[in-house]
């Protein structure tokens, strides 16, 4: 700010000259200049004690803006990397820690300011040392500091095997998050009069400790691989156990296929199984009562047995005619392996389907959800390019305030500053791939069952659509990739990349839950991805314009509330409504008939309870955003998605149990274990080792040492546990309705 400051004492450490012999005498000159009109001074030259720092030894000292300090460190034999830690009990005054090479002309220590000092001699000492506020950033690596600073230094970057540790106290605290002081001027004072900062002194402590060895890198990589590859082994063991169980079951069924058992077994089947395929029972997209809108004019297999059984707001699956590629689903049934009398008496209520069939996926084109891989590629490529550019800028400029690492546990590898934060994301990729393999194996088994006209596959259980599962597995892998990209250089603008596929995962999970009970009116891939793209668009806009922008928060809150109301209407009426010019007239008509002319309760009580709770939560989140206006908009947007997903999942579980269905052992174990893992994962997530909502210097106050293998920190543990928890959550969605695999689809409730 071009201010002038008054100091009563100034000191500088003289640059260590190059000597030819220990007894050589060298002369130097001291120039003293001042802005004061007349000043007297005393000059004192003293020998600097403890100029060379020792490994694992603490050294305390004082520094001011007019009295910078620097020390020398020499790499011991066998140590290739060290961590320079500087601490202080005082947050202010703000200071800068810099690591500078001792020799210039050897590659790593050339001045970025263009200073030619010492370049004639390839091993000349770097003189002068850049130890002033206005030039400390000219060379080497540097960080601003309040209470903590840590810089990892590698021997390969300093050919002289030594470096300077420079500490400079800044004249102002604003860069460290402090307030810019106001110095009032007296009436007779000149604007050019220097400002007295009084005793602007900082007490600091420096210690240099060896960093981890290359063996620790190898061990940590093997540990990470071992954890997640064990899930592959466990999955293989479970698959082998399941295969043995199926072989035993086939033996039992073979015994049941004897002629003496055929007649009795056939008598245990409901009439609908002996007549024709239930897929021929209902017209595609129709919602008539026992009638069909298909061209084939088939009749209702359930007869005329209608009743009021079930909870208000529940309907059962109404199947539609399969399109051409799915015609095997409409073939005649074979023999049924178990009695269905327990479900045969269950009445069927027609479900509410949408009239607008073009807006929804058919049973065939729903597999186009796999195209998420194309979206992922086009999204990830520019992200990778951007973070590589960030890392390059950090390496070239030496400015370590660009990226918000946990500097006390940031282990570099090659050009990467924090390899451990990148490695820990491997779990998302490996477990996402494992989930895709599980889905592929299930799809192969299902297709084989269709080819042999298996009764279970044709007429029982939740309709098997694997497209969204493939999309979920791919999204989990991409979350790992983009989280790794974010951790290449974590900062405010890059955080959107870490959360973008979290939005996708939350949205896809909600779509999958809805698709389970509404396979005929699930949103098309184009509509779903358009909505997710809109969410990511708002995320970008919020990151760029949302920080303290009242107008943005007003607009976003209004859009949030309106979208909540529209989605609530869509869910309540099962898609049987239109948003057009007559919407207001129809709303007034419903209010008049249901509230004025006669007071009637909601037709679908359970669905209404869910939507009321959802609206309360979403309106509360909208009000919170409008009032508080959090700086972390990406996390706020993700919280909205997670809250809605958890609410819908809880509703699904409750309605499933109220419908007389049960949760089998495997999904129950998945739910319990996944909940426990999520609890531990969130504990490590909220440790907060850094935060880009503060200045880089303030963020480093939250830095902590590694807690696992001297390589991984709390946030790495979050990566491990959250990837396992997400994988478990996907397995819950995959196996949640396995208890319905032996239940006819027209006996399965819709909610």
From TrEMBL:
| Example GO molecular function | RNA transmembrane transporter activity
Question: Mainly localized where?
Answer: membrane
- What UniProt keywords apply to this chain's record, in alphabetical order? Glycoprotein, Membrane, Signal, Transmembrane, Transmembrane helix
Location(s) in or outside the cell = Membrane
> Which cellular component, as a GO term, is one annotated location?
plasma membrane
Task: Enumerate the Pfam families for this protein.
Answer: SID-1_RNA_chan
Transmembrane domains' residue ranges: 217-241, 372-390, 422-440, 468-489, 495-514, 526-545, 551-573, 608-627, 633-654, 666-686, 717-736
Q: In terms of domain of life, where is this protein from?
A: Eukaryota
The cross-references to InterPro entries, in alphabetical order and at most eight, read: SID1_TM_fam
Q: How does it sit in the membrane?
A: Multi-pass membrane protein
Family the entry assigns? Belongs to the SID1 family.
Checking PANTHER family in the record gives: SID1 TRANSMEMBRANE FAMILY MEMBER 2 (PTHR12185:SF16), SID1 TRANSMEMBRANE FAMILY MEMEBER (PTHR12185)
What is the protein name for this chain?
SIDT2 protein
């Amino acid at each position: 700010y071009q201010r002038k400051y008054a100091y009563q004492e100034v000191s500088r450490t003289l640059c260590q000259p190059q000597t030819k012999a220990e007894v050589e005498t060298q002369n130097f000159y001291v120039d003293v200049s001042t802005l004061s009109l007349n000043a007297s001074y005393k000059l004192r030259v003293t020998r600097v004690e403890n100029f060379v720092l020792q490994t694992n030894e603490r050294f305390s000292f004082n520094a001011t803006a007019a009295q910078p300090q620097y020390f020398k460190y020499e790499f011991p034999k066998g140590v290739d990397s060290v961590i320079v830690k500087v601490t202080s009990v005082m947050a202010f005054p703000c200071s800068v820690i810099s690591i500078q090479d001792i020799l210039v002309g050897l590659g790593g220590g050339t001045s970025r300011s263009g200073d030619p000092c010492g370049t004639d001699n390839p091993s000349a000492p770097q003189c002068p040392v850049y130890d002033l506020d206005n030039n400390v950033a000219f060379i080497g690596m540097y960080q601003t500091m309040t209470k903590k600073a840590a810089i990892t230094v590698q021997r390969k970057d300093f050919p002289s095997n030594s470096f300077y540790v420079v500490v400079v106290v800044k004249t102002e605290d604003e860069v460290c998050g402090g307030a810019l002081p106001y110095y009032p001027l007296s009436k007779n004072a000149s604007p050019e009069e220097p400002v007295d900062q009084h005793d602007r002194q900082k007490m600091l402590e420096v210690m240099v400790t060896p960093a981890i060895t290359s063996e620790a890198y190898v061990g940590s990589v093997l540990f990470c691989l071992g954890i997640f590859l064990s899930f592959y082994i466990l999955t293989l063991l479970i698959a082998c156990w399941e295969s043995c169980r199926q072989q035993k079951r086939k033996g039992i069924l073979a015994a049941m296929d004897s002629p003496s058992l055929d007649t009795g077994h056939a008598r245990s089947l409901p009439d609908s199984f002996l007549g024709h395929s239930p897929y021929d029972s209902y017209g595609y997209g129709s919602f008539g009562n026992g009638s069909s809108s298909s061209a084939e004019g088939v009749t209702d297999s359930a007869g005329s047995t209608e009743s009021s059984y079930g909870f208000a707001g529940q309907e059962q699956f109404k199947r539609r005619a399969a399109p051409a590629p799915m015609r095997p689903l409409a073939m005649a049934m074979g023999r049924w392996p178990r009695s269905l009398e327990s479900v045969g008496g269950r009445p069927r209520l027609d479900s509410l389907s949408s009239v607008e069939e073009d807006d929804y996926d058919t049973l065939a084109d729903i597999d186009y959800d796999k195209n998420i891989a194309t979206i992922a590629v086009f999204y990830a490529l520019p992200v990778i390019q951007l973070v590589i550019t960030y890392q390059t800028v950090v390496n070239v400029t030496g400015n370590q305030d660009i990226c918000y690492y946990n500097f006390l546990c940031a282990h570099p590898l090659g050009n990467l500053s924090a390899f451990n934060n990148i490695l820990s994301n491997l779990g998302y990729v490996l477990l996402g791939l494992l989930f895709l393999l599980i889905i592929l194996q299930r799809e192969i088994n299902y297709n084989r069952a269709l080819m042999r006209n298996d009764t279970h596959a044709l007429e029982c259980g939740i309709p098997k659509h694997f497209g969204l599962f493939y999309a979920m597995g791919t999204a989990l892998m991409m979350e790992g990739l983009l989280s790794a990209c974010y951790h290449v250089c974590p900062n405010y603008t890059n955080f959107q990349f870490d959360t973008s596929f979290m939005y996708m995962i939350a949205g896809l999970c909600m779509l999958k839950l809805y698709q389970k009970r509404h396979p005929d009116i699930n949103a098309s891939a184009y509509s779903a991805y358009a909505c997710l793209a809109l969410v990511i668009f708002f995320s970008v806009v919020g990151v760029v314009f949302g920080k303290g922008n009242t107008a943005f928060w007003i607009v976003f809150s209004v859009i949030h509330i309106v979208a909540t109301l529209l989605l609530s209407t869509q869910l309540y009426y099962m898609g049987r409504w239109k948003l057009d010019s007559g919407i207001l007239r129809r709303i007034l008509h419903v209010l008049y008939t249901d509230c004025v002319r006669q007071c009637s309760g909601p037709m679908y009580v359970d669905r209404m309870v869910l939507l009321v709770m959802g609206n309360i939560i979403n309106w509360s989140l909208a009000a919170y955003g409008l009032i508080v206006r959090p700086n972390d908009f990406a996390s706020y947007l993700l919280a909205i998605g997670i809250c809605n997903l958890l609410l819908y999942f809880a509703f699904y579980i409750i309605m499933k149990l109220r419908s007389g269905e049960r949760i089998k052992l495997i999904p129950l174990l998945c739910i319990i274990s996944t909940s426990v893992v999520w609890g531990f994962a969130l504990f490590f997530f909220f440790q907060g080792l850094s935060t880009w909502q503060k200045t880089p210097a303030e963020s480093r106050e939250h830095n902590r040492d590694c807690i696992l293998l001297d390589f991984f920190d709390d946030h790495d543990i979050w990566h491990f546990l959250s990837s396992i928890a997400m994988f478990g959550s996907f397995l819950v969605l995959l196996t949640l309705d396995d208890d319905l695999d032996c239940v006819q689809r027209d006996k399965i409730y819709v909610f």
